[in-house]
Design goal:
Structural class of chain A: alpha/beta
Number of strands of chain A: 20
Oligomer: homodimer
Shape of chain A: elongated
Radius of gyration of chain A: 28 Å
Number of helices of chain A: 23
Strand order of the largest sheet of chain A: 10-9-11-12-14-13
Distance between the termini of chain A: 78 Å
Largest interface: A-B, 104 and 105 residues
Strand content of chain A: 5-15%
Chain lengths: 669, 669
């Protein structure tokens, strides 16, 4: 490689990015200089010649999306955001990776204006970008009218070889190829280096052929040659029949005399000396955080251009609203959910079935709600009636056939949700929540209201056996911060949980649903359903015959509380009746959501679980965690067994009789 | 398709499999008839013309491995096991999916002789088979000598389109292609149907080109034409430079007049009438569980052939032992671990570093120990010194570069472990345990001693920020039944945990390791290290000045117990000292393993956490679960932050002062 000097303003701009990136990493003495040095020209060309965005309004609805799937390239992104005029200062860059800064160690949408999503865990960005492109197609197909291209933008991704090796990327790429998402353009920073050394240590894919086999349009470009990158992006934008991959050959740590092309430049500060040498090689002055005025001026044109783009678009939207009043439901979706048209239930029904019916009632009100399943549409209950599958030839369809790709599905659901303008859900069996946990976690971290449906939620599913019977999953999901895990006890509680999920704004929700039918136990009035409080008294105890004086509690007098979730609430109810016959006053609490309950005032929480009243928990899952509320447990801390559901439940102790026995033993302690 | 009659004995055999499969599903009124009907000829040809196995000894070391990655084809496998003479009776088939049967709803190695591994969650079988092929190459390269092909077998997989869609399969296929695992042969049951309908609903991959791009040898065969399948397998066995994929075109539900070629035949019993019609179409009598004697005789030849194969091999091994006494270490690996050569530590050191040193001490003793990392070899500490990478041209190398493929890595570790003759480990950051949970769970379910290393185990990793800081992961792993999660407090406890992991037989172990250095706190004598008890008193309290009479406990008198794990043990120790100065007698317990502790006798457990002595838990992770042992917690139930590790730990309360404050508050309650 020849040393790139700053003969042109564009070279100066590129090297300004490089300088800022290595300075920030050096000052933090922590970070990843390699990717920004190598991919700066690629990102520069994209951001200044193609990306339609408005730095003054990072939330402009019709902006092009840029997803840095290779999250370890954050300094590239932070530099671009600062330079093009987002709400990020040079001081923010100087505070990189320090307590309280807006420039965390990997990008976070909740901290930094202009960051579309949190990335770092590889593959997530790629897969969520597929969701964004789905949202763009769905919305544009439904909203746009001749002369009114209201929704019309590209989704760009910058990814690394690490992204390409992750399974979730394959799933997402395969789905994108199937869906022919032609406005998705992925730039692959092909620097031939991984953390452990050259990529050929572990990676021999023929990437061009691989992506072509998935139905992608593939090009190669010289990542150091801006015109080469520019041409490829221009062609990719014209290749609208397929998603595009542009393999950009780059050099990791470009410019660093000693570390360029080496894995050493990937994930550690270059060192003071090498920073100096690098700047010299790049033809830049030694000055820390150097931003030449002409470079800044060049970048900041984005503010003017961006505002113009948005202004023109806003005018178009005004005209559209005036001529197309029916568009309101799409442009200004009403967040609240009207429950008067929710389904009625009369007979025992599986909560997955109740979920499907409620989903359809909501879908009628909310045309922007889309989703699907990982090849389990019927089993989980995800089909929106009267709508086709979302396919290349039916882009207004609301049912997404995600294929057997749980991980990409949930990441894409995040992408659709992040896109905004849509709400999205994905569904599979609870056992397969393990296949998509990284996406669930990221939704929680990004504070977005993705909706995750998980049916077949316990050993109660029966015959499919231990490989398909969740044990630890429910509790493992509850452990994820900011994820509202809801396990409703019957059809009406399910409907209430759906309403909660639809009205969530800053957290994802997981609905945990049964395969088997459950009796109706909870009130039919969804608007005032106590599921919103997370836990509530479903059956109050009769006055205790044993401790009538000693144990007076706010909401009644009980000897014992039995708390249960989902399918075990009916078992708890029956156990309560058994105990009452023996003169033991048992209160039964349904606890669909720990998340909601733990956000209630202390008074309320103590009114449900009064001090000094013993509690038994009943849940067909790991008992780990239940000690927070209960002193004795009916649960399962080992793998399940293959047999009809009722037999498995009985054999493992989920019977009223066993719950009563455990309760009696607790009272004797 | 023409109706296949039973003109030949082979057709009769194939249709016997089909009949047994649909009968068993029909009797259980639950299951998956589609795959066995469609893929019976493929499996039949493999099992009777190619597979080298001995039904009388399912554990014969040099058997070909057969992995049914499409676990929903269990009836195909159970039928073959019964028919060829494994320890599985016709009555077992009749008990399919019933309580206590040896024929569970998906295959389980722990229940059914001849089942190599548990499958059902798609992709796991494929990826673990890659591990088996790795083990075969590693062992054969190290053990075999001219004239002594001691280890020499194929690994066969039967997979479905669902397997091919899962990301873990891509990761594994890419790795297998890179490693040129020529003795891996995958038969793809290409039936064009998924649960939700035709595969073209969501799957448009060009599978041939995709796998060729990954370095595979690809063929196509007519799955209904036994000669076509036979030829392809023969060619695949000769194509030793690359792993082989054989795309077998089949018809799901073959023979069923109304359901063949339809998704309806996939996952539900055909119905009594359709079973009759299917048998008629197949030219078979109506009789339930019909096994014609000539078919059984044909299948049972496998017993004779198999015994001969094993006998010949045994003689070869005898001769090999006699002429190659040095082979003993390979053929009869000694399970116990000698700790006299374990490293000594004098200074504070990260437990990931202590792990790396201990691993190397063990590797010197145990030549059959292999493993690696998902592109984080140095960071996690997985390199075995003095050994090259395991590559096509260095197949005796012990360091496997798994690439950025966490899921396939851990599934392959399972495969290597299942293969036997090897012990295997895989390593990545704890945050990425989410990327491989299905493999961790399956190891636990299969009761195999895989070793999983997870470093960078808390917010203490610092700058990389919330996307990389585990919060819920530790507890979410503890929730998996039969997984021994160990989080050592210092270098010596790390060494002790490694010894425990190496001596485990029926459960996998996860070692949770720090990025940051930790002081030495625990005894250096590994042989008698109390880590084996899961939790133990590290610092005994001085005699309580507050309750000297009231609270007498077996192992001392304390006002308070502070229990901590990993990096927080030193914080707990310092907090204990602070409290002692105030006259509060605090015992400090190190609790590296809940799994081991919960298997101790009650007396021991109560000696550690005496009744009525309050307990504070200190762990830089989710508090969910700790209520089992403690009444107050220093933990973190929200996402972390990007800043230097010590700052993050301090800001979130992991300081001796804060632990002392929480302790005082608990004592006041």
């Amino acid at each position: 490689m020849g040393a790139p000097l700053v003969a042109t303003i564009e070279q100066l701009c590129v090297n300004t990015i490089r300088g800022l990136s290595i300075d920030a990493v050096q000052r933090a003495n922590s970070g990843h200089p390699g990717l920004p040095l190598g991919a700066a020209p690629v990102a520069f060309v994209l951001w200044t010649r193609h990306l339609r965005h408005n730095p003054s309004n990072p939330k402009w609805a019709n902006r092009d999306r840029f997803v840095l799937s290779a999250g370890h390239g954050y300094m590239l992104l932070y530099s671009l955001l600062f330079l093009t005029g987002y709400e990020l200062t040079l001081d923010d860059l100087k505070g990189f990776r320090q307590w309280g800064s807006k420039t965390p160690g990997h990008p976070e949408n909740i901290l930094t204006p202009g960051v579309e999503m949190a990335t770092g865990p590889l593959g997530q960005g790629f897969a969520s970008a597929v969701g964004m492109a789905i949202a763009e197609r769905y919305l544009s197909s439904n909203i746009n009218r001749p002369g009114f291209e209201i929704v019309d933008h590209h989704t760009y991704v910058l990814c690394s070889d690490g992204d390409l090796m992750e399974g979730v990327t394959q799933e997402a790429a395969s789905l994108a190829g199937h869906l022919k998402l032609g406005k998705l353009v992925v730039l692959y920073d092909d620097n031939h280096i991984t953390i452990d050394g050259a990529t050929d240590l572990s990676f021999s894919d023929h990437t061009r052929e691989r992506f072509q086999a998935l139905g992608w349009h593939v090009q190669e470009a010289d990542g150091e040659d801006m015109e080469s990158v520019d041409r490829a992006i221009a062609i990719a934008k014209k290749a609208t029949a397929e998603p595009s991959l542009i393999i950009c050959r780059t050099t990791i740590g470009f410019g660093s005399p000693n570390f360029a092309g080496k894995s050493k430049s990937h994930g550690a500060a270059l060192g003071v000396e090498e920073v100096k040498l690098t700047k010299r090689a790049l033809g830049m002055p030694e000055q820390e955080f150097y931003v030449p005025e002409q470079a800044l001026d060049f970048f900041r044109q984005a503010e003017v251009t961006g505002q113009e783009l948005e202004d023109n678009w806003s005018r178009l939207v005004e005209a559209f609203r005036a001529t197309h009043p029916e568009s309101t439901a799409w442009l200004d979706p009403d967040g609240s959910i009207e429950t008067s048209h929710f389904p009625e239930f009369n007979d025992p029904v599986a909560t997955r079935v109740a979920s499907a019916k409620t989903l359809n009632a909501i879908a009628k009100q909310v045309p922007t709600l889309i989703g699907g399943a990982a090849d389990l549409a019927e089993s989980v209950g995800t089909m929106i009636e009267d709508s086709p599958y979302f396919q290349p030839n039916t882009p207004t369809g609301r049912n997404i056939a995600f294929g057997v790709r749980e991980h990409a599905m949930m990441a894409a659901v995040n992408g659709i949700t992040l896109h905004a303008g849509c709400r999205a859900f994905g569904g599979t069996f609870l056992i397969f929540s393990d296949y998509c946990r990284p996406a669930l976690r990221l939704a929680a971290l990004m504070e977005i209201p993705s909706i995750f449906l998980f049916s077949h939620d316990s050993i109660g599913l029966g015959e499919d056996g231990p490989t398909h019977q969740p044990i630890e999953h429910l509790m493992a999901l509850r452990a994820i911060p900011n994820l509202n895990v809801m396990r409703p006890a019957d059809a009406y509680e399910t409907a209430a949980c759906w309403k909660i999920a639809m009205e969530a704004r800053k957290n994802p929700c997981a609905l945990i649903l049964t395969r088997q039918a459950l009796p109706l136990l909870t009130p039919a009035e969804i608007e005032v359903h106590q599921a919103t409080r997370g836990a509530y008294v479903l059956a109050e105890a009769s006055v205790s015959s044993r401790y009538p004086e000693e144990r007076s509690i706010s909401a009644g007098i009980a000897d014992l509380v039995i708390v249960a979730t989902g399918s075990e609430v009916s078992v708890a109810m029956a156990a309560g009746s058994l105990l009452e016959k023996e003169g033991i006053a048992a209160r039964v609490v349904s606890m669909p959501s720990w998340f909601l309950f733990e956000r209630q005032p202390k008074d309320y929480r103590e009114s449900i679980f009064p001090k000094n009243i013993p509690v038994v928990s009943v849940e067909a899952g790991a008992t780990l965690g239940w000690a927070r509320y209960a002193q004795a447990h009916v649960g399962i801390d080992h793998f399940g067994a293959s047999a009809p559901g009722p037999a498995v439940m009985r054999e493992f102790g989920f019977t009223p009789e066993n719950v009563a026995t455990v309760s009696r033993e607790l009272l004797k302690r």
